[in-house]
């Protein structure tokens, strides 16, 4: 078990390294040369770098790491270590890509491909337990005092940041940066959660529950949890709970359409423990 845990940790650090390098490539070869700014502390670092002439690679590290250290107790030592590692790799990669030419000077191409690539890089880092931006840490520390959710604080911070960018460099650059931020957020979330996202399905029925379970098992390779329930009007019935991938929803709809069922489907953010899918021969 210990060897497996070490191998898993090594793999996580390798993936964090890859993600940080991808993010640095997007910043230096797509966004930065076209004056398109990322959000959060990295965005602040990009502005300060333009005004002062300091290296972006140095600024991103020195502006981010102190917030991680402040959030040590809140997020835990493993998270801080991985995040400091991610930010260090990111800073080194930014320094390397500073000497490479921009891939494109077309702003729309820079927004589209820079946002996509940056979203993939940041998503990989987050998926494997790291962090490239200390904004969320700051928000988590301020949340008890401001009585404001972390996500809303980050959004407000970035809105103010992009207004400043618009005032300093023109509203076109501010709007391009906002568009990039939205694209990065969508791609980052998808990569972090995984493309094969899971769905929790709760099925209520008066029909032959064993027939439904058999169909789900035979066609999807999934087992169900079953219990007795009672409706206010319908009286006693049966409930089944099954976790499937988003790509299996169409098959599940076809299965339950043959029965008298009531079904609710919810997104699952995380599964802890063993998620076993039976492979049918």
Instruction: Give the total of beta strands.
Output: 4
The rounded Rg comes to 23 Å
- Structural class of the secondary elements? alpha+beta
Question: Which percent band covers the strand fraction?
Answer: 5-15%
Ends distance: 29 Å
How is the biggest beta sheet arranged? 4 strands, antiparallel
> Element order, helices and strands?
HHHHHHHHHEHEEHE
SS summary, helix count: 11
Q: Mean pLDDT, nearest integer?
A: 83
Strand order of the biggest β-sheet? 2-3-1-4
Shape: elongated
Provide the low-confidence segments as ranges: none
Number of separate structural domains: 2
Helix content: 55-70%
Your description of this structure?
The chain contains eleven helices and four strands. The protein has 281 residues and is of the alpha+beta class. The protein has two domains: 2-193, no CATH class; 198-267, 2-Layer Sandwich (Alpha-Beta Plaits), CATH 3.30.70.120. It has a four-stranded antiparallel β-sheet with strand order 2-3-1-4, with helices on one face.
